[in-house]
Design goal:
Layout: H1 4-15, H2 26-29, H3 38-55, E1 61-66, H4 68-79, E2 85-91, E3 116-121, H5 129-139, E4 143-148, H6 165-187
Parallel strand pairs: 1-2, 2-3, 3-4
Amino acid sequence: MDHPFMATLAHDLEAIGIATLRFQFPYTEKQGKRPDPPALCHATVRAAAATAHKLAPSLPLLAGGKSFGGRMTSQAQAEIPLAHVCGLVFFGFPLHPPKQPSIDRGAHLFQVRIPMLFLQGTRDAFAELALIKPLAKRLGQHAALTLLETADHSFHVPIRSGRTDVQVRSEMLEAFETWADSVIKSQQPTKHE
């Protein structure tokens, strides 16, 4: 949770008025290399979402994460919906390992019944465009896909692109903020006059 990307993202989200709760899976807490079994990761996601709601019960709750954390969150949501969560956001969804294109890791997404935002770099080796674009389309109204030109899985851009990592983060945050606003507004009860 202290990875520079996560720390910067939390700071950037705070700057636009979005609170975050960062957590670690048990294997990272123990400084292990091998991920925990999915059931333990899902339980960890559930505990984090419950803690976030307990700390700020009046705030709308979005869940998600970067790469593996996002996938574990979506798997947990697909299995048993996360209490109080109204949307999922993925900062680089890992659809497949690099150079092993497949959509198998995305099959569970069809069981998710809340809005999902995929923020993906166009050079993301973990989600080839030829796979992630049609997957998002097949997910229909539940999925929104924002492509960040020339960004990789870590949202870095090559110098030759003429863009900077800061510009990419800014675009990513703007897309997230717009999506989050629409999801939160859609969850609010309408007032009858």
